[in-house]
From TrEMBL:
Compartments reported by the entry: Cell membrane; Membrane
GO MF annotation list: cytochrome-c oxidase activity
Organism (species): Halomonas campaniensis
Span of domain Heme-copper oxidase subunit III family profile: 2-286
Keywords: Membrane, Translocase, Transmembrane, Transmembrane helix
Protein name (record): cytochrome-c oxidase
């Protein structure tokens, strides 16, 4: 590379160990889903994946702090994070697509509409509606009620929007060299993220115990928990990443012009917030 250096990472054991750990976790997951056993294998695989990730990221931080990375590596990290977030977009697009397919096509077909309305012969008494309170077929019981979007879901929406604002303030503070501002506003973002998770836990309890919304409550219950559950998992992951960023800020890491690790965490958190807006609109409101 003319006019500068090109950093080539040292030989690393983490990619192969990460692949093996992920393979063990997937085998355990498959055993649980198919045979109802294998939770120990899945737990061991998950623990191994988390361990590899922690140690791998530790090495990356050490290399960054040692000044081994240049502008080319910075571009590589940005491209990698960009593609990772794109993969997450596609992940949620699949679940949103399933929701829209059911609501736009499958239910009307079962009610006799369109070219595939012959499907109505399966359950001639079925009437399409959303939320689907009375699923067709025997042995499937729909929810008794649906959650109001204007209570806990609205509160969680305001919390996540506020967390994006506080995180932006923290990011701007870091760029301006105001580390105390960054630390305080980042801590506030963490508190908002934890509050979101707690409120969602309360919402799930209410859904299960008082509203009859479960994974077995027909297509409505399945799509509700798949979309909100995976989003909640991403909030937990995002909060963990921000906690690591907070610890690094406390240790004096990052500078105003060299802080992509922090910036990548911001990208991820803002993405999680945008997904929630979509969930609030299409899962709770409409």
């Amino acid at each position: 590379m003319s006019g500068g250096s090109y950093y080539v990472p040292a030989t690393s054991k983490w990619p192969i160990l990460g692949s093996l750990a992920l393979g063990v976790m997937m085998i355990g997951t498959g055993l649980v889903l198919v045979h109802g056993r294998g939770s120990l294998v899945m737990a061991i695989g998950l623990a191994a994946v988390l361990t590899v990730m922690a140690l791998w990221f530790r090495d990356v931080v050490k290399e960054s702090r040692a000044g081994l990375y240049d502008a080319q590596m910075d571009r590589s990290f940005r491209q990698g994070m960009g593609w990772f977030i794109f993969s997450e977009v596609m992940f949620f697009a699949a679940f949103f697509g399933a929701l829209f397919y059911v609501r736009t096509f499958a239910l009307p077909w079962l009610d006799g509409e369109g070219a595939k309305g012959v499907a109505a012969l399966l359950w001639p008494d079925f009437t399409a509606s959303w939320p689907l309170m009375n699923p067709p077929g025997e042995g499937v019981e729909g929810p008794r009620e649906v959650l109001s979007p204007w209570h806990l879901p609205l509160v969680n929406t305001l919390i996540l929007v506020a967390s994006s604002i506080t995180l932006t303030v923290a990011h701007e503070g870091l760029k301006e060299g105001h580390r105390e501002t960054t630390r305080n506003w980042l801590f506030g973002t963490l508190l908002l993220g934890v509050t979101f998770i707690v409120i969602q836990g309360v919402e799930y309890y209410e859904a299960y115990t008082h509203y009859g919304i479960t994974l077995q409550a027909g297509i409505y219950g399945a799509t509700f928990f798949l979309l909100t559950g995976f989003h909640g998992l991403h909030v937990i992951i995002g909060a963990t990443i921000l906690a690591v960023m907070f610890a690094r800020i406390q240790r004096g890491h990052f500078s105003g012009d060299d802080h992509f690790g922090f910036e990548a965490a911001c990208w991820y958190w803002h993405f999680v917030d945008v997904v929630w807006i979509g969930l609030f609109i299409f899962v709770y409101v409409f």
